């Protein structure tokens, strides 16, 4: 390709719309343009890089035995009703109406469609395992689309769905996808770490997310350098997430006045001096407008994802002060669960069998001391509800845990039989008994992966593409383009020779100053630049500059061979 024949609208200035470096570089390097918030057009170079990521994904899916299909993006709402997600996914579903005013949904994901397909096509254990995948546009009505391709309203996902006759089979399918994902991200030149993920209200068995460490990531990952434990903070636990050693109750519950005390810290100060670790924090949430009490140690924070898992829904909210007063007869600051039997009470594991605790008395300005969990509070269920923080001991080896921000690029999920039961994907097993297929689902955000590569691989001058996904591998740069000159002739020769070797090469044939050309090729981030200038060519030499390496002066006649060697080394 010749630079003058394609469209590479590089920008000197950073557009105001971009907050993070990868988004800025996507725009500045002329890879994408915004149509409107959360919607982007891929320009020729951006699309080339995207196609390369897609191709790596496709090859590894095929290698893992998955079958490529293509499902409709437009879906009938009844299958969403059948799976029970029409309501649950309400917030992300884009809905459209046809001429008869009938409603349709734009697929944010395809469990419903693929399971309906399998329900009709697979009827025997002999036809399994099967794993179907597609690379397709997804639509999600995100609350906060931002950071360019990272969180868009419309994006490209690779989604795969496995169907097995047995649970062991499903685990093997899961493992295959896990391994394929590791290969995909490695081939994309991306450092992505698999971490244990929350299975949340999807109710799946287990799940891993592939995370790219980055300060701008929207997730937090907890990890241990000692044993390799790594988990999304939504799921992470530590040695402190276990029950405390049992404590014997010490005397009866005592009510005492605490005028003006509104927080854990107030009660920790003199004259009360009750350490936060000896207080019970009482939170009130509303689930379908019914109050639910959540208890934690005073020095712990709630992990809302864990609470969602315990409640079995993500549609709950913190109660307002007046709603709390109506439910418990007191305002926040004096709340407690002693004697509360009319509402469910969920307590963090760390509180189990603790005694001598202090909590609110459900009367403004009063607290209770000598509270023993087992004796004085009717706990509906103990569960791990606390947020793990950096420095806590690893649940496996005890070393201090670290916390890092990260971008989720992929997700593997063992689903079980939720969808196959709801949508009748049943088969006859070896004994002739009808069973629901055991499913897994596996997603990669292809467009998000492309941007994550840039977020991880750039410098002050621009993108540093890994060779495997660069829009063009080589940029041949004649420093002058005077027709008939030696420089241009040499450049054309090298360009033609590399093209003939199937190298993705672009010829910067613009009539621009060398400085402009160099800046642009660094901004776009071509892995190798071959510069042909009058002075060096007079000595029979050209300059090869790997984007991330040192400049090499080589014999002009050897330039093509040297470039091919650099490409081979990177493969
Ligand atoms: P997130 O937590 O970031 O919203 P998710 O868990 O809802 O993502 P999945 O349903 O697991 O996403 O989708 C599979 C993959 O699709 C994600 O791992 C992510 O890489 C990508 N993805 C999800 N939502 C978006 C989006 N709005 N824009 C771009 N990529 C996305
Ligand atoms: Mg996910």
Helix content: 25-40%
User: How many structural domains can be distinguished in the coordinates?
Assistant: 3
CATH fold name of the largest domain: BirA Bifunctional Protein, domain 2
List the uncertain runs: none
CA gyration radius, whole angstroms = 30 Å
- Strand content is 25-35%
Q: Report the count of strand segments.
A: 31
Task: Kindly summarize this structure in a few lines.
The protein has 571 residues and is of the alpha+beta class. It contains 16 helices and 31 strands. Strands 3, 7, 8, 9, 10, 11, 12, 21 and 24 form a nine-stranded mixed beta sheet that branches.
Please outline the helices and strands.
Layout: H1 21-28, E1 32-36, E2 39-42, H2 44-63, E3 67-68, E4 74-75, H3 77-83, H4 85-88, E5 94-97, E6 103-106, H5 111-121, E7 130-139, E8 154-164, H6 167-187, E9 193-196, E10 207-213, E11 219-223, E12 230-232, E13 254-257, H7 264-268, E14 280-287, E15 290-297, H8 304-311, E16 316-318, H9 321-328, E17 345-348, E18 357-360, E19 366-371, H10 373-376, E20 381-383, E21 402-416, H11 418-422, E22 426-428, E23 434-436, E24 438-445, H12 446-456, E25 458-459, E26 462-463, E27 474-478, H13 486-500, E28 505-507, H14 514-524, E29 528-532, H15 534-538, E30 541-546, E31 552-555, H16 559-570
Bound molecules: adenosine-5'-triphosphate (ATP) and magnesium ion.
